[in-house]
Amino acid sequence: MPSYLNGHVAASLACPRVMAAPENIKAGFLKERDLFAEHGVRYAAPLVSLADAPLVPKQLFEGLRDFIPGLTLQQTRAATDAGFTALASYSARLRSSARQVLADCAKNNTPALLVLARPYHMDPGIGHEIEVDLQAYGYPVLWTQYLPTDPDLLGWMFGPDIAEGHIRHPFDLADVWPSSYSANTNEIIWAAKFAARMPWIACVVRLSSYECGMDQPTYTPVQRIVESSGTLFFSFQDLDSTKPSGSVKIRVETIAHYLKKCAAQIIAKKKAASPPGCPL
């Protein structure tokens, strides 16, 4: 998978369940009879190594040329380049917005929340818009995949750890997570480290669903990383369970209560422990 941590972790693999999903879906339509053929549908699901951009056009072309008449490798490469350019632009824009949020929090000495989750938890049908409900209390919400990664900011946050030899780079996870093979897991772990070092992130909310096998080993390390700095930590580890909406509302109200009660002290404590010269 594409990841801002590539080159600093062991690998950036996609979730096996996600990789297998297209074939699982296909099997459902072929179990008793070929529903695709009956409806004149051709099903294409090429396996693509999105983290290896130069390889993607060839993989897509090989997987789609029998489905799209006249398709050429040159056309596929142009489309792929446009897609990666759009993705980079989108990510840069969101990271810039996240930095501005933190800059505003630093200026006004007010708290922000960070949601630790996988990208699909942004889907209202999966994440239940928990972050939206929290934002309604007036707290800006940052997301795992779009934290600012500017060198000046990361140098300020992780410089002491590098100087002391704990890590070699701000994106290095070796000090807390040596088995850094899963892209989304790596980003969740790194975001927890970011939150622990950022004074104005006063609360972290962890989202997980269907007892995800990739997430389970990270529950304790993530909580320890976050809470070691005095940052509030709350988790919703069963988003797929059937629960009344009222129970989610109560938990959101609890988070808002503790933020209102503790945010100022948390920010003060984390600022006191931070290096001088914050670039925000």
| CATH 2nd-level architecture of the largest domain | 3-Layer(aba) Sandwich
Structural class: alpha/beta
CATH class of the largest domain: Alpha Beta
**Alpha carbon gyration radius:** 21 Å
Largest sheet entry: 4 strands, parallel
Strand content is 5-15%
- How would you spell out the order of helices and strands? HHHHEHHEHHEHEH
Helix fraction, binned, reads 40-55%
Task: Find the count of extended strands (DSSP E, 2+ residues).
Answer: 4
Number of domains: 2
Q: What strand order characterises the main sheet?
A: 2-1-3-4
Q: Which blocks of ≥5 consecutive residues have pLDDT under 50?
A: none
- Straight-line N-to-C gap: 30 Å
By DSSP (H or I, 4+ residues per run), the number of helices equals 10
CATH topology descriptor of the largest domain:
Rossmann fold
The best one-word shape is: globular
Mean pLDDT: 92
